Structure formats: structure tokens, C-alpha cells
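Lab notes, practical 5.
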Amino acid sequence: MASQLGPLIGVDVAQLQKRLEERKGRQYAVLKQWLDVDLVPAVRAAGIDGINLVPSYRRTYPHGTLACHILGTRNQFHVPLSGLEHRYRLLLDGKPSATASVSNNPSSAALGQDDSMLPAIAGFDIVLTLDLALQRYVDAAMDELCQRETPKNACAIVMDPTNGDILAMASRPAFDPEQQPLGNERRKATQALSEDNSSNVAVETEYEPGSTMKVLLAAAALDSGISPSVTHYCTGRYDAGGQPINCWGRYRVEGHGSVDMQHMIAMSCNVAAAKIALELGPQKYLEFLQKAGLGQPPGAGFPAEATGSVVRKEWLDKDAASSGANRLVINAKAISRRDVAVMGFGQGLSCSALQLTSAVSALANGGVRNRPRIIRQILNKDGTVFRTPTQPAPVQLCSPQTAKAVLRMMIAAVERGTAKVAA
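Output from the prediction step:
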């Protein structure tokens, strides 16, 4: 059978024989899923005993792996497994037609009634905020990056700071949402998909943001009245209690010397960041990060959005917490100087790439932070609008003057600082 059928359905004969042996003694074996309709006549004409052709349907993804982590995928039974396919399955799927029935005895079979057919309810269409051309560009850039640098994971996000629209998002490694292996291959692929490829790194993964946090530190410091021209001396090492804090690379030995706020960002000086964080203090700094959306779900509309971790319970003022105060109140005695210092350069806390993008985008919008979103509209099948998700009121994270000043510092990092290579 395998030698006769394999060439007709485009499956390797040895692979087909293996599949048949795996299913020996079972009622059936799926030998080819979603057979090309052009091959059907040849299979029928072969007249092989025991071969049945069963019509079925599948979800197609015209753009392949493009935005695969956002869209998600469905299995061979059309059951959503991940992404927006899973999160909004009730809206997308609708309801099939059904026969209404009645019974006067709960233990007996239901009796059909004439004219009791309930019509099918069509699912809705969901319009995303993605810009297709920009998404293609970002996906291509991510593929090039992964080929060059071979990272374990990577992600990129493009967001419109004026309204929170996510215009492009890509995570790596990617997966093909249409790929549905059979047998043992399916089990292995499903395991790999659940453990690695299907994870939307940009949304679901928490990590220590590191030096990217320095721009938010600068914004918090400026907004609290700390002058950008105040300098801190970096010898490459700083003792804030506990294990000493070191600068990076050769500056661990050489130090950066006298560093103002702009050079703290441009040259990514850990020692200066630590000193600024201590000058700002835990109360103001953590309040600012909370207002920036860190430590709470972004609410962008994705499944499994990471919350991150910024404020530890033991740092909270117990009296304020017991009184039910809504405002964050930190017990300065409960948090060490070193904890505050390392948070200045993004250690000792965690967030997702989406959270960080949302926070930093406020600096490009006059200090105003909009909540990120991936859903623009939900449409009826006739194209009319069923619902437009409402956005919460924007948050004034910092003053327009502060936002403009920090943007200048970020430009300096690109033009003559540590971000020059990335530019």
C-alpha cells in the first residue's frame, strides 16, 4: 500500500510505511492531512482498498509566519491553541446551528420538535492595530538579527505613542501556524511549540531591563527637581552596602570619571545611575515606575501578559497598607540602599518588553503614556462595527519639559554613546 499510495499523495514511502506500522491494530490512520484537491482524482482512480477521503477544513494563514505569535494557531480539529485565536475564540467562532429539543423526563432522550432549528450565529471579525508593511519590515529585521547573532530569544515592538496602537511586534523563535505534523512528529512538535516557539517573548517573558531603565530613572529624577548638570564621580566601583556595584567593561577598572545625567545615559554609567537613584529615593522612584505601568498587566489585549515585579511586599509601609490607602507608600527602613541603587540601572526588578515600550513611549509623547492595544475594532460579518474597545484615560507620566530633555539624552546615546553601534 505504501509504495502505491506514497507517490500519489506526495508522502515519502518509508515515512508512510512507518505511519501505518504505528497505527497497526487501530481503527484508522491519518496518512495525509489536507490533501491537495488536485491529487484527489488520482487517489480515487487507484482504487486502493481501505483508503477513504474525508472532506475537512482548516484555518489558513496567508502571510505564513508573519505575526505568528500575535495571531496564534489552531490544531487539526480547529481548536485554538494560542495567541489571539485562543484569547478571542468565543468572538471569532460564533455558534453552529442546532435543533431545539424538549423532554418531560430528564433521564430520557430529548425529543425533536418541528420548526425548532436554531440558526447558526456567525462569528465576528477582529481588526488589529498592526501595520502590515511595518510588520513585514520588523519580521524581516528580526530574521536577519537571529541569523547574525543566533540569540536564544529576541523580540521587537513598534508602538504609536500618541494612542497606544501596536503597529508591529515580532518574537523569535517563530513557528509556522499552518504546520500540523502527524503521529509522533505531532507530539514532539506540540511539545516544542508549547515550551519554546509559541511563547510571545515580547508580551509573556519577564526580564531585568538593565540599562534601558536609565531613561526612566532620568525622567523621574528630572521631574522631582534633580538638576541634569549635577555630576557624580565614577571610579568604576561603588559601595552602597553589601556586594559592591561595578560599572561595565573596561570602565569597571578605569571608571567614567565625572558624569552628569546626559553622560550617565550616553555612556551607560552604572555608578552614576546608582547614585542618582539613591538621591531620588525609593518612594519617588518606585511611585514613578508604578505610574509608568511597571509591576501591573499592560492590558493590551494579549493572552498571558506578564506583570513583572517592581515593589516587594516587605518594602510597603504596613500602616498605610492596613489603612487601605490607594497610594503606594514605601517604608524606607525596609528597603536597603543597595536595592535602591541597583534598580537605578534596571536590576532587582523585572518587566516585559511590552511594559518597557509603553513606559518609554511616554517620553516621545510629551510625557503622556497611553495604554498599549492590539485590538482596534470588532466587526459584524456585514462589516458594520460591533464594538470599539475603549481606552483608559492617558497618564501624565512626566512633564513635557522632562520628556524633551530625556529624549535629547537618548539622542546623545545614539549619536556618540553606547547606542551608536545599534544605530
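Observations recorded by the TA: Confidence is low (pLDDT under 50) at residues 182-186, 189-194. Residues 132-149 form the longest helix (18 residues).
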